[in-house]
Design a protein that fits this description.
There is one protein chain. It contains 17 helices and seven strands. By secondary structure, the protein is mainly alpha-helical. It has a five-stranded mixed β-sheet with strand order 1-2-5-4-3. A two-stranded antiparallel sheet has the order 6-7.
Length: 373
């Protein structure tokens, strides 16, 4: 471990290198060897190495880029392309499975939605699963059809099965017997017990068809609001920076290409009961990534701000939690920030009594597992 003096500017160094790589990908070729190595490691940790490789590969890797770094980037690009092919094939098979079923065209969420539309943030973006949103009343029919065609739910304990079926916004993950791509069937974008209650019918009602596809995608404003909600309610902070980058890319793209995007943004956030995550999404995209946000939208978003004390704490925690930890010199305050935001994510998704029972069960389940020899 480094001495305190050497660790003093670790967080600032991480933010400087990562934001520089995001804003000027070609600039990484000019970095000193040590900083180049650290940048690649940080981008890999953040799930953004494929994005960096994609941006650099658009015009060919800079001649000044060392061969060992270029090899890492080529490997990242090949890995991402393989995952995207797997996601496209899974979507194709899901379309086949649902053909002829008396259900609405599902809405592809998050990464698959970006991929179907060919959005800028889809280039170089890796995929962990396929997320689909369907009306709650159609969920049994969709699940039954997928089971008939070879998809099986993950084996869960009785408690976890009940948790998904009764409170979660999605069914237990399903995986086809011949493939390893997880499929998550959603009926909402937040748990039924969460403090906010966006109406899925409003989201589905504005969803748009994708030409040549069996699937639909969320309307542009709803797509951004969902990304913001997923970031601020999510418990997996290892993907937090990638999700903030998605938000930055989407705001820049739709702000230029979608007529009336900014005029509709805040009224829609309030209509969907998503003012708080929208406020945070705008605030941290602007502060940490320099996302251009119209002054009138920023002003309107203050209606979604939390109390001053809470906002002050969030402003201290967010930069530490959203950026990846330094691989060699992890900071205690960064680990603490991630822990506190992890606790916050659970606190705003469940009422206190339910949360206590849930955490108690998870602690029991973890301690009751037999230890490996």
């Amino acid at each position: 471990m480094a001495a305190p003096a050497a660790r003093k500017d670790v967080a600032a160094q991480v933010r400087r290198l990562v934001t520089a790589a995001l804003r000027d990908p070609a600039g990484v070729a000019e970095l000193a060897p040590g900083e180049l190595d650290l940048t690649l490691r940080l981008m890999r940790r953040a799930g953004l190495l494929g994005r960096l490789a994609s941006r650099l590969g658009e015009r060919g890797f800079p001649p000044a880029l060392p061969r060992i770094a270029a090899d890492q980037l080529v490997s990242a690009r090949v890995s991402v392309e393989a995952r995207q092919r797997a996601a496209r094939w899974e979507l194709d098979r899901l379309a086949w499975a649902l053909e002829g079923a008396a259900v609405s065209p599902p809405v592809a969420l998050k990464g698959c939605g970006y991929l179907l539309l060919g959005l800028p943030n889809a280039a170089g973006r890796s995929f962990a699963d396929v997320d689909l949103l369907v009306p709650g009343r159609e969920l049994p029919a969709v699940e039954a059809r997928l089971r008939e065609r070879g998809w099986q739910p993950t084996a869960l304990s009785a408690y976890d099965e009940r948790y998904y079926r009764r409170w979660a916004h999605e069914l237990p993950p399903m995986t086809h017997a011949e493939r390893e791509v997880e499929v998550d069937l959603h009926h909402a974008i937040l748990m039924t017990t969460a403090r906010l209650a966006p109406d899925s019918a409003l989201l589905l009602g504005e969803a748009r068809a994708v030409p040549g596809s069996r699937f639909r995608v969320l309307a542009p404003v709803d797509m951004v609001l969902h990304a913001m909600t997923h970031l601020m309610f999510g418990e997996n902070l290892s993907d937090a920076l990638r999700e903030l980058v998605d938000i930055d890319d989407l705001l820049r793209h739709f702000g230029r290409r979608e007529p009336g995007f900014w005029q509709r943004f805040w009224p829609r956030a309030e209509q969907l009961d998503l003012a708080r995550p929208a406020f945070y999404g705008l605030r941290y995209a602007g502060a940490l990534l320099g996302t251009p946000i119209p002054a009138e939208v920023a002003a309107a978003s203050r209606a979604g701000a939390p109390p001053a004390a809470v906002l002050g704490l969030m402003d201290r925690l967010a930069p530490h939690a959203l950026f990846p930890a330094h691989p060699d010199f992890p900071l205690r305050r960064s680990a603490l920030a991630r822990t506190l935001l992890y606790v916050r994510a659970h606190w705003i998704r469940m009422p206190p009594a339910m949360l206590a029972r849930h955490l108690g069960y998870k602690l029991y389940a973890r301690t009751a597992q037999p230890r490996r020899a």
